[in-house]
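Entry:
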Amino acid sequence: NWEENRQAEIKTLTDKGTIPVEHDFETMGDDMSDEMMDNARPFLMGKASAVVDEEKSAREIIDEFVGDAVKCMSAGSASIVGKSKL
């Protein structure tokens, strides 16, 4: 429907920085059918994957998460825990 019948609307929305599918979600609200929601999901997955610019294994991702968490926790504890005055 978007590609065939609503090209001008796509252009207008994207020029304003609005994702067309999100526009439909907002305007239709509860009137959107389950079938319409199912058809829109692949487009929304693309939005999240657009920010991925490298391929990593699950192990590399988890190692990075844990490493970053350790750094944050170490920095946080260093600012809270003072040295003993004894």
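The chain has five helices and no strands.
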